[in-house]
Design goal:
- The protein is 66% helix and 0% strand.
Length: 176
């Protein structure tokens, strides 16, 4: 739970930094709902997307997880790596956050509609990105990150010693 609180705190910092960079600009005005705390669906999606970019895992089923224990271990590794980023690499997180905003907003902007139409469709467009298209959104984020020399030149090494130790895994359900 501690890592999720840290994620929330870092999201606030990254959001404030983003808003300062775009203060008075049309991008911030158009996408201001992304940065409101009373709009949790945007914040959650942006947080999960940023976390996925930071740890290079989208948590989508990948076919290698044979059972609930393997899935649990993958989630624990994800959270352990995210905690490493949040504790030791906050600037990296903020940088990935900026790319995540671009990746998330691009489908809205590229629709070629008027500003009013974009605002009306924004919710449904963003919600569609949260479902089955999330993996594509992560790929888009990774493409943005690959074009950032700072990210490329300063990769984060996740050693096994930095991984979160496993707590007891959930028991597999016995459905018949």
């Amino acid at each position: 739970m501690e890592v999720l609180v840290r994620l929330l705190m870092q999201m606030r910092e990254a959001s404030e930094e983003f808003k300062q960079r775009h203060r008075g600009g049309e991008v911030l005005d158009l996408f201001k709902r992304f940065f409101r705390e009373e709009e949790p669906r945007y914040n959650c999606l942006l947080g999960l997307l940023t976390a996925s970019g930071c740890v290079d895992d989208d948590l989508a089923p990948d076919g290698t997880e044979a059972d609930a224990l393997a899935r649990w271990q993958r989630i624990a590794r994800f959270l352990g790596r995210l905690e490493t980023v949040l504790l030791r690499h906050s600037d990296y997180f903020n940088r990935v956050f900026r790319h995540a905003v671009v990746a998330l907003t691009t489908p809205v902007l590229t629709d070629g509609s008027s500003r009013d139409d974009m605002l009306k469709r924004m919710s449904s467009t963003i919600q569609s990105q949260a479902g089955s298209k999330f993996q594509h959104l992560v790929v888009s984020l990774r493409m943005h990150m690959q074009n950032d020399d700072v990210i490329i030149d300063t990769p984060i090494e996740f050693g096994e010693a930095l991984e979160r130790p496993l707590t007891p895994a959930p028991k597999a359900s016995r459905r018949r």
